[in-house]
What we know:
- The protein has 302 residues and is an alpha/beta fold.
- It has twelve helices and nine strands.
- α9 (208-215) packs antiparallel against α10 (223-233).
Amino acid sequence: MNPSHESAAPTVGLIGLGAMGAGMAASLRRAGFAPHVFDIRPGVAQAFAQDGGTACASVAELAAACDVVVSVVVNAQQTEDVLFGAGGAASAMKPGSVFVMCSTVDPNVSIAFEQRLQALGLLYLDAPISGGAAKAASGQMTMMTAGTPAAYERCGAALDAMAAQVYRLGDRAGAGSKVKIINQLLAGVHIAAAAEAMALGLREGVDAAALYEVITHSAGNSWMFENRMAHVLAADYTPLSAVDIFVKDLGLVLDTARATKFPLPLASTAHQMFMQASTAGFGREDDSAVIKIFPGIELPGK
Length: 302
C-alpha cells in the first residue's frame, strides 16, 4: 500500500522525535505517508523534514493539520501537556480525528485521556510501544493497543506502517497500557538480573566476552541479557533507554500492583536497583548502567 496515492489516506503527524519517535516517523515516510512532525528541541523536526514530510513549529500547528496525531513523549505529564497544555493538541484537532498515545503511563491515566477527548468529539487510541529504537526505525516494533472501532478505522494504516505487530486488546483505553506495564515488569527485572549475572562473573574473574558468548548460547539467556550486556562489553552507555526510564516504569508497575495489594518482590528489587543507579548519577545513561551499582568489579573499557 502507498497511502500517498490514496485520496482518502489520513494526514498523519508525530510528536516527539526521540529514539523511538524518529524511527516511527521514518517508517511512516517509508510507507508513503508524508508525516508532519514536531519536537521540542530546536532544529530536530526541520532536520527530519529535509528528507520528506513537514516540520511544524508547534503542537497546535501539527494537530490542526492532521487526521491522526501520534504522541511519542516520555510520560503521562508530557502527554498531558501535549494534549491540554497551552497550545495543546486537543483544542486544535479536527472533530473525528484520533490521538494515538504511545507512552508508558498508568492505565487509569490513559482511560481518563480517552474520556476527556471523547467529550471533545475526538477519538483516542491507547497504544504503548515496545521493541527499541532499531525496530522502530525498521517498522518492526510492537504496539499494544486498545480503543474504539472508529479509532482503529481512522488510524489503522498508520499503525501498520509503524509496527510489525499491532495487538488489539480491547475496545476502550486501558488494556494496552496494562499489557505494557506487565511487559515493563519483565524487561526491568531481566535487565537487572542480566547486570547482576555479569557483575558476578566479573567479580569471579571470568572473561566478560567469554561469559557473554556462553550465556547467549545457553538456557540462561534472555533478549535483555543479549542486548544490554553487549552495551556493557562495548563500554557504551549512550542512552537508547535510560536508567531513569525504568525508575519511572517499574514505579508504575508497583503502583498498579499496590492498588490491589498484589505482591511483586522481584519488580520491587529491580526498582530499587535502578533507583540506586540513578541516585549514584547514572540516571541518564543507558539502562545497562545499572551494573555500575555493584562494588568491587572492573567493568570493560575502564
